[in-house]
Design a protein that fits this description.
This protein is mainly α. It has one helix spanning 2-47.
Amino acid sequence: MNHVVLHDVRASFFLMVGLAMLAFICAVAALSTVMRPARWADRKSSQL
């Protein structure tokens, strides 16, 4: 019974870590998408 509980705890831990990484990646992508126009404007003005 102890092995089953340990396996469940380990599976839930990896699941939470995976979800946290996915949420972090989505947050970074959203921030980069929001901040991209300002960066592009700066790049275009600097290139010109």
